[in-house]
Amino acid sequence: MNFCFLTGVLCLLSVIDGDEVAEHTIQYTVDNFDEEIPKRNHFVMFYAPWCGHSQRLTPTWEQLAEMLNEDDGNVRIAKVDCMKEIKICSDRDITGYPTLKFFKIGELQGVRFRGTRDLPSLSNFINEQLGSQSPDDSPQIPEPVHGVIELTEDTFYDHVTDGKHFVKFYAPWCGHCQKLAPTWEELAQSLEFEEAVTICKIDCTQYRTLCNEFEVKGYPSLLWIEDGKKVDKYQGSRSHEDLKAYVNKMLGSKPTEKENVIDESKEEPQSLVLVLSGDNFVQGIKKGISFVKFFAPWCGHCKRLAPTWEELGKKFVNDNSVNIVKVDCTLEINKELCKEQEVDGFPSVFLYKNGQKVSEYTGNRSLEDLVEFVLKHSDGHDEL
After folding, report:
1. How many helices (H) and strands (E) does the chain have?
2. 0.90 cut: is pTM over it?
3. Which phi and psi angles does 63 have, rounded to 5°?
4. Three-state DSSP state, 146
5. Which residues are in the Thioredoxin domain (predicted)?
6. What is the CATH number of the domain that holds 96?
């Protein structure tokens, strides 16, 4: 069963508060729910803090909120604690947790989401709810100018089959996409006479099947395509200067002094964290304790955990029985590995003993708590 039901457990479990602080998700209460929900499109998670399914969804929900909760965006990602806001949940027949509902402008009952609770499925559901909407007061993507090629399902493959192309996969309602639009046009204008590459865009709310084929899981996604195949996904800053430097790099141009400085800083030669990939993961965790962070470079929670993870590596540098490890799930070589390890949100932190997964870490991400968790398992106390 995919839900945590109320039967027989509320009295015992309602005292347990496992909800973690969300920096981007909006928390509604009975004081403001009925007033705020009709003002904008909302996607709301009705949850119970003690529910394991709710706890597992929370990092993905926060990730979705980090992507979409922009001041000028067309949708808000929110949540309601049904243990505290009983009336809100009762009025909407919430009987299991988590329950996810989409509320269009002016509505107070909402449409229930019944799909898989991963980022691509949640994003596609939002597309389905908003794809046909074009409210007069919603921000519009600027008209393309100076060389940005607007592709469709009919023209896409004909255009990208040959040569090199930098393509923006976007949704018109996405706040990040709207902010990038003028910079994308500026990039196209600055490369107007560069025949080796074209700057393109495609609307994923209209051509969802094509975007799914290219594994677009968030907006905007900036992909480098050569001869019809995805070669790379751009993960850097979205300034005009950085985007152009990336294009030059992919075209084989000599890097500027600024690019060299950035590349050197990314090498992190002093890191004591072991970097594993799909090629060497099994061998790397074969012996002893391996505490592994599966992450995405663009993930805010991952960025905040990164310096603590480095400190954790230092703590165990002299312990040959413990490895502190990280795996970048956005790299093509690691995608199958992350899928096999059931990584469904970032960061996901798993502990392995002699090659076998023992436990998923879901506690506080302070250095002290992480060290304590590793020591507990290294002493032979397994927690399944």
Report:
1. 14, 17
2. no
3. -65, -45
4. coil
5. 1-127, 128-252, 262-379
6. 3.40.30.10
Q: Which of 284, 311, 297 is nearest to 346 (CA)?
A: 297
The CB density around residue 109, as the number of other CB atoms within 10 Å, is: 11
Q: Is the pLDDT of residue 109 over 90?
A: no
Tell me the two tokens of residue 77.
Answer: 């990602």
Residue 309 falls within a domain, yes or no? Answer: yes
CB 225 within 8 A of CB 279: no
Is residue 323 pLDDT above 50, yes or no? yes
Q: What is the rounded distance in angstroms from the CA atom of residue 142 to the CA atom of residue 179?
A: 10
Count of all residues that appear for the chain in the document: 384
- The Cα 91–Cα 357 span in angstroms is 42
Contact (CB, 8 A) for 178 and 141: yes
- Is 206 part of any domain? yes
Counted domains in the chain:
3
Average pLDDT of the residues in 207-233: 88
What number of other Cβ atoms are within 10 A of residue 361's Cβ? Answer: 20
State which of 251, 266, 291 marks the end of a domain. Answer: 251
Collapsing DSSP to helix, strand or coil, 64 comes out as helix
Two tokens, residue 54? 């709710």
Cα(115)–Cα(233) distance, integer angstroms: 27
Tokens of 371: 């060290």
Q: Which domain holds residue 40?
A: 26-131
Tokens of 153: 């399902």
The Cβ of residue 320 has, within 10 Å, a number of other Cβ atoms equal to 9
The per-residue pLDDT for range 11-32, each reduced to its tens digit, is 333 333 444 456 789 999 999 9
CA-nearest of 119, 107, 110 to 65 is: 119
Q: Cα(302)–Cα(291) distance, rounded to whole angstroms? A: 15
Residues assigned a catalytic role: 174, 177, 299, 302
% of the chain exceeding 70 in pLDDT = 83
Token representation of residue 16: 């347990």
d(CA 86, CA 46): 10
Q: Are 49 and 83 in contact (CB under 8 A)?
A: yes
Domain match, 290 and 319 both: yes
Angle at 252 between CA 197 and CA 217, to 5 degrees: 60
Q: Identify the DSSP state of 332.
A: G
Token readout for 25 is 């998700």
Q: Distance (Å, rounded) from C-alpha 183 to C-alpha 241?
A: 10
